[in-house]
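User: tokens in, sequence out, please.
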């Protein structure tokens, strides 16, 4: 086990890196990455004894009392879940009564919200991202976790590759701050998340389950393709969404299913994956 004590300064944090307990000192706080309801996220550089092992990481710092409780729950859920290719990795954490620090792998490509602000994504690009969402949501739901805040801002781009059909974006979902455990067959009832992403049953104050995450994937798919949300605030699904008629039929079908107002008719994540497998036999994009 590699273990090294850092100088005792207020900047010293004891972090738990996978199985190795190492004590590290933030070397410098450099760039601001983002800010959400819980706190700020910055790039920190941790210096190691061997400079070649210096590491840039993303550190989410939470200082508000209410958010600290939430951040601890987030850490618990990250630990329970373990790793997935499309879920950001929590590499370490620290907390005391005044703050929590979550040390995450650094995803350098920015978030999807910033990307879509610059331009809409074409059907190939959107479909590639949709399939990654299906994989990570399947991972969450099969582990009994409801995310409740899936949105473009919480989707990080890890790499981009230009192809003849556009850019292939590899993504990772972050921010389990509103995630909760939900046993099979159980329902939750508290309103949370981001209003333009509220599923109709949640917006109406009804009990809801994992289908709210499926709705959010539908909102993201629509927004990537159109550069705008499918529903206006407070008008969730009351007026039907209008999609671009030039979209390939399979994407229109996905939108119709994912944004089904009645949660009982909206597919589960298993059914979403089955739809994809069925479509693979009849590819349009
Ligand atoms: N690991 C990371 N790498 C790069 N940027 C990140 C990372 N984690 C978060 N961010 C950026 O910081 C923002 C806020 O982080 P998030 O975990 O969503 O916090 P909050 O719970 O406050 O919304 C994200 O929208 C994203 O832009
Ligand atoms: Mg967030």
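Assistant: Sequence out:
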């Amino acid at each position: 086990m590699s273990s090294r004590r850092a100088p005792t300064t207020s900047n010293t944090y004891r972090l738990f890196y996978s199985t190795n307990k190492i004590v590290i000192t933030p070397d410098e706080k450099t760039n601001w990455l983002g800010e959400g309801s819980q706190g700020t996220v910055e790039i920190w550089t941790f210096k190691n004894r061997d400079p070649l092992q210096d590491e840039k990481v993303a550190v989410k710092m939470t200082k508000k009392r209410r958010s600290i409780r939430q951040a601890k729950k987030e850490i618990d859920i990250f630990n329970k879940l373990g790793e997935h290719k499309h879920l950001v990795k929590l590499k370490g954490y620290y907390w005391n009564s005044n703050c929590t620090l979550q040390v995450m792998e650094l995803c350098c490509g920015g978030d999807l919200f910033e990307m879509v602000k610059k331009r809409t994504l074409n059907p190939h690009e959107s479909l590639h991202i949709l399939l990654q969402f299906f994989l990570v949501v399947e991972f969450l739901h099969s582990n009994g976790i409801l995310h409740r805040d899936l949105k473009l801002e919480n989707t990080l781009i890890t790499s981009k590759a230009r192809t003849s059909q556009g850019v292939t974006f590899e993504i990772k979902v972050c921010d389990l701050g509103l995630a909760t455990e939900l046993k099979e067959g159980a329902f939750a009832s508290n309103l949370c998340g981001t209003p333009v992403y509220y599923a109709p049953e949640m917006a109406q104050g009804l009990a809801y389950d994992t289908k709210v995450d499926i709705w959010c994937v539908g909102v993201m798919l629509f927004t990537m393709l159109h550069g705008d949300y499918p529903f206006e605030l407070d008008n969730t699904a009351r007026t039907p969404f209008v999609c671009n008629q030039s979209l390939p039929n399979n994407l229109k079908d996905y939108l119709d299913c994912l944004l089904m107002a009645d949660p009982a008719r909206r597919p589960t994540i298993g059914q979403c994956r089955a739809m994809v497998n069925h479509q693979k036999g009849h590819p349009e994009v």
